[in-house]
From TrEMBL:
Protein name, UniProt field: Subunit length determinant protein
Pfam families cross-referenced by the UniProt entry: Wzz (PF02706)
Organism: Microterricola gilva
Entry keyword set: Cell membrane, Membrane, Transmembrane, Transmembrane helix
Bilayer disposition of the protein: Multi-pass membrane protein
Length: 273
């Protein structure tokens, strides 16, 4: 049958071993003080930007809203962090990646760039630099896609122009080709006139006034709680061990007493017989 250990037993164990409990609490509080001394100062700053769809696509039609899951991945990509590292002229790409957290608030087309660093100014500078690098990279990528599409249209126009030039001026086929050339030129003009608005920083990162390090009262409160918990646990274990040993000693004492008990002397009648 499992041994039952009541709250009364626990209270009695703590009362008997109060010295041990105090020692454990003092050690826990000392650990809290040490943690406060050696816990590194870390600062977090956040920049929030909107993510606007590119004004036109390669087909010349209005583009669809940005895929925020994809944009979140791009925001922490090596390409973006390399641009930010060049602007900051200090931290490496790996260091920027370690300190960065990019989030997408639910239901919003915005990106939140949170950066943690050893200094308040460093955290704010890195968050703003990465947000700006993301915008720059997004515009550069969009321009490259449009330029490649425009180059393809230029090649197509040249090919159709050469084909039309080989036909008679009054040929119906030539008129059809010239119509195609005009449509391609209009499409190319739309692409070349496209504006690229990647978004804007709606909440720039600022230097935080406080670090993310827990305050002394919080550390001491946590240490006190841990000390009391561990002390009570140790007291309970020691009480169990002590009870088990006491029961074993009592059992051995009874067994020894039975072994040493003298044999019964026969009655007078038995002796006469």
């Amino acid at each position: 049958m499992a041994e039952v250990f009541s709250l009364e037993d626990l209270a009695r164990s703590i009362t008997r071993q109060w010295r041990l409990l105090i020692v454990i609490i003092v050690v826990a509080l000392a650990a809290g003080f040490a943690a406060n001394e050696f816990w590194p100062e870390r600062y977090e700053s956040t920049a929030v930007i909107t993510v606007e769809p590119i004004s036109v696509s390669t087909t010349g039609q209005a583009s669809e809203p940005a895929n925020m899951d994809t944009e979140r991945v791009v925001a922490s990509s090596t390409e973006v962090l390399t641009l930010a590292a060049k602007e900051l002229n200090g931290p490496t790409v790996a260091e920027l990646r370690d300190g960065l957290v990019v989030l997408v608030p639910k239901g919003a087309e915005v990106l939140s760039f949170s950066f943690t660093a050893d200094t308040a100014d460093g955290a704010a500078a890195a968050a703003n630099a990465i947000a700006s690098a993301y915008q720059e990279n997004r515009v550069t990528t969009a321009k490259r896609v449009v330029e490649e599409a425009s180059a393809g249209l230029t090649a197509g126009i040249a090919e159709i122009t050469a084909e039309a030039a080989a036909l008679p001026a009054d040929s119906p086929a030539r008129a059809t080709l010239e119509t195609q050339i005009q449509a391609l030129q209009e499409r190319q003009a739309i692409l070349r006139s496209a504006s690229f608005n990647a978004g804007s920083i709606v909440s720039p990162a600022i230097s935080p006034s406080e670090s993310t390090k827990p305050s002394m009262p919080i550390l001491l409160a946590a240490s006190l709680f841990v000390g009391i918990f561990v002390g009570c646990f140790v007291a309970m274990i020691r009480a169990r061990v002590h009870r088990s040993r006491s029961e074993e000693d009592a059992g051995e004492a009874k067994a020894g007493a039975r072994r040493q008990r003298p044999a019964k002397i026969g009655t007078g009648t038995e002796n006469a017989a």
